[in-house]
Structures are given as C-alpha cells and as structure tokens.
Amino acid sequence: xxxxxxxxxxxxxxxxxxxxxxxxxxxxxxxxxxxxxxxxxxxxxxxxxxxxxxxxxxxxxxxxxxxxxxxxxxxxxxxxxxxxxxxxxxxxxxxxxxxxxxxxxxxxxxxxxxxxxxxxxxxxxxxxxxxxxxxxxxxxxxxxxxxxxxxxxxxxxxxxxxxxxxxxxxxxxxxxxxxxxxxxxxxxxxxxxxxxxxxxxxxxxxxxxxxxxxxxxxxxxxxxxxxxxxxxxxxxxxxxxx
Amino acid sequence: xxxxxxxxxxxxxxxxxxxxxxxxxxxxxxxxxxxxxxxxxxxxxxxxxxxxxxxxxxxxxxxxxxxxxxxxxxxxxxxxxxxxxxxxxxxxxxxxxxxxxxxxxxxxxxxxxxxxxxxxxxxxxxxxxxxxxxxxxxxxxxxxxxxxxxxxxx
Lengths: 242, 154
Ligand code: FES
Ligand code: FES
Hints:
Helices cover about 35% and strands about 5% of the residues of chain A. Chain A is mainly α. Chain A has one domain (about 60-240). In chain A, strands 1-2 form a two-stranded antiparallel ribbon. In chain A, strands 3-4 form a two-stranded antiparallel ribbon. Chain B has helices spanning about 20-30, 65, 85-90, 100-115, 120-125, 135-150; strands spanning about 1-5, 10-15, 50, 55, 70.
C-alpha cells in the first residue's frame, strides 16, 4: 500500500538541484566541444555554445520529444530524452514496485510494505498472503488500499529502487534483465500496462509522476529512435515541477 | 442487485451492493460471525476467508468479486471442527483471547493447501500479516507444524 512520506535522495529530487546538474553536464560537453574547436587551427573558434535551452516542463508534465529537437546531435538528444523518461522511472509510484529485495515499498519514502509481505516465486506474494489477498482491481477508498488489475511486483532483475538513471538505462537494454523484453516492449509496457496507468492516477493523496502513459511512451519511442543512448553515470534529469 | 454466492457449500442469493465488503455480507447478512472484523483496512488478517481456495481479506474484498465463486469461512473449514489445524489448535491451546484465531487458521489452511510441509520461514512469511494482539505467535507456528506433521509438540 501507499501511505507515507520521507525525502528522496538528493540526486533524485526534482527542481533547482536537478537543473544545476543538468546544466553542468551539458555545460561540460559544450566546453569540451569548444576546446576541440580551438585545436582545429585556422579560423577563430566560434563563441562557446551554451547548452541547448530546453523548454521548461510545465507542472506535472513531461517535455515532449519535440522539445528535445534543439539538441542537434542525435546521441546527445537520446541521452537527454532518457533523463526526461527517468523523471518517471525514479518516481516513488514506479520504484515502490521495482525493488531488488523481497519487499514492496510504499509511500514517498520507500518504507517497507505494511503488512509485511514477501515477493514470492512470481512476484505475487506467498500462499495465504498474495498481493490479490488485499489489492483489488481498483483503489478501495474506504480502506485506503490501492488497486489495479493483477497487482504485483516487477522481477528483482528489473529493480529501479535506489538505482541511478544511467544504470536503469543499461538495465532496460539488457534482455537478460528484462526477461527478454526488447525496447519496443518496454515502450508498450509504459503505455499500456494497467499498473503503470495506476501510477499516473494513483488516487487518494498519493503523488503521481509527471506526464501520462502516452507521454512517457512517446519519449521512450523517441529515445529508441535516436539510438537508445544512456546518460553518463552521474547525470540527473533537468528540472521540472514533478 | 442480486449477487449469487457459494458459502461453505451453500448457495445464497443476496440483494446487496456489489461494493459492500464481503465481510459485512458474511457477518450481517448471513450471520456467519466466526470471521472477525479487526481493522477493516487489510492490516490485521482477522477477516481472512478463502475465495476459490485462496486466502483473501474479506474486509477489503468487494462482494461483487466473490459473486459466483466459492467462499470458505472458518465455519466451513471442516464439518465437525476436526480439520488438522483445528485439532492442533485445540491440542496446543493456541488462543489467548481468540479474536485473531479464525483468521490465523484460515491463512494457515491456505498455506497448507498450497504447501503441505512448510518450513518455519515459509510459515512465518505466510502468516506475517496476521496480527495477534495477545502474542500467541510461537504457539501458532507450533500448531501449524503439528498439523503439517513436521513437529510442534506441546
Ligand atoms: S479486518 Fe480485515 S484485515 Fe483487519
Ligand atoms: S489470541 Fe488474542 S488477538 Fe490473537
């Protein structure tokens, strides 16, 4: 269930810090490019290009793939697209059901599930205490029990809880860890899985990730079309109201 | 709306809201008060019954989900109260106040049906969500093992 709140790791917090980090990463890239130009001889180096200015994300929204066209290099655009997608993938509504261990999490602070439940052999609990013992196919407001069809955990190989965006990216590209799912299947999961749909409309006072299933799937397809490049290990998403 | 239920082998047609918790229908409409109301929000396990052989918490199971399916409550676990778990419960004098025990037994029965010889860790995992405010946990585990034939002497 989804009940409590605690602050997220600093590198995953939305807002100003993220803006700064993103600008730093892109700024470093621009500085390198400028330095390379300076070694090229002859002509004076062009004035240092600033980082592409991305349209700010509206509150509760994701940037669209078109917002990233300002980044001319497809590989750099791909990396930036993935960072935008990671605003969803690292959100508590998503990571709570993507743990590496046997316990789902709840709330905004990754508290262990209460009552104490176990993953079980298929991610659906153990005899006597299956996910479906309590979770229905829809939210139960009278008991504050969240629900959606086939409530269950993602396999432990697909753990996102506490994982950096770059590492999530590498994991998504590794069929050994996605149960053989290719990238198009992952875009499909984001757009059509009822549990993902629940995450974007979790009900009660639960925070939702930015965007919608369609919006994050559009970004995923654009990421795939630009080569599905992964961001550098320390990169975090550009800011935007969550 | 009429909802057809099969409870403990008997058919019932209930004129009720499909969103009514199954627990209310069992206790208030059918008079089966062995299933307890503890927390009402899936936290304690006192209301555990079986739906098609699987344990569910009746306080959060909409009546509509049970329509046309087999519901088993503590009253129907055995015709004479001599299910191996009930016998072990009596022999080891498991209950203190007793309030949680119907839920404990129904959860344990679902475990043994799926896994007839569970380890201690498996018992603990399956029953972890069934709270006992009297603290009878060690006797509960011993009785489950006794019923499974894997230990649990007094
Ligand atoms: S009364 Fe149903 S779990 Fe507590
Ligand atoms: S025996 Fe009293 S609550 Fe369990």
